[in-house]
Amino acid sequence: MSTIVLITGANRGLGRGLLERYLALPNHTVIAANRNPDHPTSQDLYKLPTGAGTKLIVIKIDATVWQSAFDGVKTLGSHGVDHIDIVIANAGVSYIWPIIAEVQEKDLRAHVETNAYGVVSL
Q1: Cα three-residue angle 88-58-83, rounded to 5 degrees
Q2: Tens digit of pLDDT for each residue in 15-44?
Q3: Three-state SS string across 97-114, please?
């Protein structure tokens, strides 16, 4: 039986590193979720080596859009996925780094909506 792992933000950085590690294991289904599955960094994931019996599925989940996680998970049935064993909620943003006295509400809101609400919707 295959272990099913979903990793958000899986097309670069830490998410990609985690993805590569899970892909190397045998008998895993690894779901790489990111905001643009058609982007070259997403398409390059299909070129990564996989362990025996391991497969990759790339889906769209945009952490800035509440409904996106729900829609992305709904697509998994067409790939034969009926459950997820491990979820790594890695997707996140960091647009600016001001000192606290210069933080603007709109910037703080953009970070919270993605980094907090995005994880909750997932």
Answers
A1: 55
A2: 999 999 999 999 999 999 999 999 999 999
A3: CCCHHHCCHHHHHHHHHH
Greatest Cα pair distance, the chain, in angstroms, is 53
Decide: 7 and 32 in contact? Cβ < 8 Å. yes
The C-alpha torsion from 70 through 71 and 72 to 73, rounded to 10°, is: 50
Domains within the chain, CATH numbers bracketed: 3-121 (3.40.50.720)
Residue given tokens 């909620």 in the structure block: 89
State pLDDT tens for residues 66-80: 999 999 999 999 999
The beta-strand segments (E) located in the chain are 3-8, 28-34, 55-60, 86-88
